[in-house]
Amino acid sequence: MVNVMEAPEGVTAQEHGAARIVVDEPRCIGAGQCVMVAPDLFDQRDEDGIAVVLRDEPRSDELPAAREAAALCPAAAIRLVRGSGA
Amino acid sequence: MSGDGVLVIGAGAAALGVVEGLREQGYQEPIDVVGAEKWSPYDRPPLSKRVLDGRLTPEQTELRPSADLGRLGARWLLGHRVVGLDVDAHAAELDDGKRLRWSSAVVATGLAPRLPGFARGLDGVHVLRTLDDALVLRTEMLNARGIAVVGAGVLGCEIAATARGMGLEVALIDKEPAPMWSRTGHELAAMLATLHTRRGAKLHTGVGVARLEGDGGRVREVVLADGTRIDADLVVVALGSDTATDWLQGSGLTVDDGVVCDAHCRAAPDVYAAGDVARWYHEGLGRLVRREDRTNASAQGLAVARRILGDTRPYAPMASSWTNQYDVSLHFAGELVGENPEDTALTVVSGNPGEGKFAATVAAGEHVIGAVGWNDPRGFRAARAAIGRPSSTAA
């Protein structure tokens, strides 16, 4: 059985445009990796440690840190959604 | 034959970290990912908790929505294994005979649960590693009266707590004196023993399993080394795992409790390892380490991607992990047991263990080496910040 997912033509992670940070609260386990990687973009609630987004539309110079926070989140609770209306 | 590019062997969190790291840094060449399971990358920590008790569906464990995965532009060869790695020729052979060429390869095949001899030959005896394992175990738990969990490490403790939450009678068995004993140090282990006992799990510590007894081919009883008999029509064995490295025999890579790597997660020229399977030289600790935690899987995958693209920084992160048992969220950072366990001391820096909420630093000798938070995220952050400082100033 071969299960191959081919990439859509010409689409890569390098797409540009505004990105919005979305935290899936029920998934968040409060590890705090996002705060360590991007302290200007994330904080944690005192009572339960759940991630709080400080600025959900990061500046372009903050995008690498935002992407790293999403990639490193051990609960896969952070997403960068393209386009402010998405 | 595929063109050259990066081959990632394994399709879990570490593999995803490699792929995302490569694309994030602008890598445009082909990426092949070979995964033994049929699922696209999913999250393992919920398997022993919210998947087992049914709060999460299999689809909800996906690490990335399929649209996001598609955007990464990798080829996912799922339901396949690599059966041979030819390091000199920069090639790999798949289980269907296909040959893949690569310019860099990343070993991220993770772990395989250990199944001791006593656990073989009877129905109703399970391990928990994969999503499929969790779904089978969940079905069994919905029909079981009682469950015996053999091994009170993190996984065994989480399964026991989840089973109690589902209303099952639970026996939690370990050779060590208390749950998570060798991992967390003795003081925390004692607190965990109290927690499990109070929530109605029956703890059998300091004694191992002698054998299982069955009835009509199905397990019926667990017999401990001291003769104690435990009624159980369902048994989960959580006695740790071995690294999934059999397929590397003959590859020339050094395998010794994992794929042995240098400080850059490099096992051989152009061959790297990431996640549970990697045992690399941690420059900060001055020794080879292997980590089975979820946090490391992503971080090491990302680090390997950067290394492939020329980053020269050694990979020397602070350990970070967590566990959820009953209504307790435990967070750990750094090392929890010093080289000499007798010389390791826990100092409560906020809250109160008696009230079920506290944070503590872990000191070995003169320095803080780790931090623990027990339902105390704020205190944990302060304790974590003290790691590396002299222990006299930590409190």
From TrEMBL, chain A:
Gene3D superfamilies: 3.30.70.20. Ferredoxins are iron-sulfur proteins that transfer electrons in a wide variety of metabolic reactions. Residues 19-47 form the 4Fe-4S ferredoxin-type domain. The lineage of its organism: Bacteria, Bacillati, Actinomycetota, Actinomycetes, Pseudonocardiales. Keywords: 3Fe-4S, Electron transport, Iron, Iron-sulfur, Metal-binding, Transport. It comes from the Bacteria. Its cofactor is [3Fe-4S] cluster. The keyword Glycosyltransferase does not apply. SUPFAM superfamilies: 4Fe-4S ferredoxins (SSF54862). This is Ferredoxin.
From TrEMBL, chain B:
The keyword Oxidoreductase applies. Keywords: FAD, Flavoprotein, Oxidoreductase. InterPro entries: FAD-oxidoreductase/Apoptosis, FAD/NAD-bd_sf, FAD/NAD-binding_dom, FAD/NAD-linked_Rdtase_dimer_sf, Reductase_C. Signal peptide: none annotated. Its cofactor is FAD. Residues 322-391 form the Reductase C-terminal domain. It comes from the Bacteria. Residues 6-300 form the FAD/NAD(P)-binding domain. This is FAD-dependent oxidoreductase. It comes from Amycolatopsis ultiminotia. The lineage of its organism: Bacteria, Bacillati, Actinomycetota, Actinomycetes, Pseudonocardiales.
